[in-house]
Amino acid sequence: MYLVRFMSNEEKEAFFNGEELVNWEPHPEYYTDSEGFCFMKVNTSNIDSESEILSEVKRSYEYLDGIVSNETGLVLEADVSLLTESTGRYADPYSSNSIWVTEYCCNEYDSYDFTPHYEITKVDDEDMQIRRI
Predict the structure, then answer these.
(1) Position 124 confidence tier, pLDDT thresholds 50, 70, 90
(2) Are 85 and 102 in contact (CB under 8 A)?
(3) With 90 as the cut, is the pLDDT of residue 27 above it?
(4) What letter would DSSP give residue 33?
(5) What residues contact 133, with CB distance under 8 A and at least 6 apart?
(6) CB under 8 Å to 34, separation ≥6 — which residues?
(7) Contact 47, 2 (CB under 8 A)
(8) CB 108 within 8 A of CB 44
(9) The whole model's pTM is what?
């Protein structure tokens, strides 16, 4: 499964240094049933299509803007068995309503189980940029 995670530069550096990242913090129950690190699914049939990946990353960021770090991010591949499917309540970017969106979470992840494919080098709805790793 392909996923996107927006993160701080510090988290990205720890990931690429081979550290196991750990987070057992539950999120507020009113907004989500997730715990730990959250990821959004990247719907693609072709991981090599940079334009398709960029479009999916932008779509995810529309829901997450203002909630997640806007420093950087990664498009990762991981086995679905390492993740828990959950839902999060977000502002609908196309209306004034809130909506429930499927997300995936885990309490621990590292560069051994999660393979990076793209780095998000500029996090911005207008001019987002990605780079193949």
Answers:
(1) confident
(2) yes
(3) no
(4) S
(5) 116, 117, 118, 119
(6) 26, 27, 84, 86, 87, 88, 103, 105
(7) yes
(8) no
(9) 0.94
d(CA 9, CA 25): 20
What whole-number distance in Å separates Cα of residue 25 and Cα of residue 23? Answer: 6
H-only helix segments in 1-133: 9-16, 50-64
Closest by CA to 132, choosing from 123, 15, 121, is 121
Q: What angle do CA 117, 25, 128 make, to 5 degrees?
A: 35
- Under DSSP, the state recorded for 14 is H
Residue tagged 């500029």 (tokens)? 122
What are 71-101's pLDDT values in tens digits?
999 999 999 999 999 999 999 999 999 999 9
For the chain, give every domain's residue range.
Answer: 2-127
How far apart are alpha carbons 3 and 74 in whole angstroms? Answer: 8
Q: Are 31 and 87 in contact (CB under 8 A)?
A: no
